């Protein structure tokens, strides 16, 4: 039951903040600040950073984010969780750029 409530809430949050315009802007490298702030304010990063203890909740949030193709880096491993917990959000964003091939510093 709790995962259904969380899923509905996350689905609504991502649905409210991910639009075709946001997705198109993200493709050009624009950072979706309002979406990111909503994710932070909802406490989703804390849940995702819990590791195995929050596995069901993390999967629920990631499923909702994936449904809307949310263009924000969500930590799914220890490195991402560390970046989030230390407040090094730029590191998480750079890691996402690296994965997408948008970081010119990486050959």
Please provide a written account of the structure.
This protein is mostly helical and 107 residues long. The protein has a domain at 27-100. Helices cover 67% and strands 0% of the residues. It has 7 helices and no strands. Helix 1 (2-17) packs parallel to helix 5 (55-67). It is globular and about 35 Å long. The N and C termini lie far apart (46 Å). The model is unreliable at 103-107 (pLDDT under 50).
Helix coverage percent: 55-70%
Q: Low-confidence spans: pLDDT under 50, at least 5 residues? A: 103-107
Shape: globular
Biggest sheet descriptor: none
The number of helical runs is 7
Layout of SSEs?
Blueprint: H1 2-17, H2 20-27, H3 33-42, H4 44-48, H5 55-67, H6 78-85, H7 89-100
Helix pairs in contact: 1-5
List the keywords.
disordered C terminus, single chain, 7 helices, 107 residues, 0% strand, mainly alpha, 67% helix
Summary of the model, kept short:
By secondary structure, this protein is mostly helical. The protein has helices at residues 2-17, 20-27, 33-42, 44-48, 55-67, 78-85, 89-100.
């Amino acid at each position: 039951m709790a995962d259904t409530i969380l899923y509905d809430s996350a689905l609504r949050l991502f649905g409210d903040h991910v639009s075709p315009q946001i997705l198109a802007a993200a493709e050009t490298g624009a950072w979706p600040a309002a979406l990111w702030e909503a994710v932070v304010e909802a406490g989703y990063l804390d849940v995702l950073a819990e590791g195995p203890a929050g596995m069901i909740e993390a999967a629920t949030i990631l499923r909702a984010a994936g449904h809307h193709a949310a263009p924000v880096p969500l930590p799914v491993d220890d490195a991402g969780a560390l970046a989030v917990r230390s407040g090094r959000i730029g590191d998480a964003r750079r890691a996402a750029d690296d994965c997408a091939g948008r970081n010119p510093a990486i050959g």
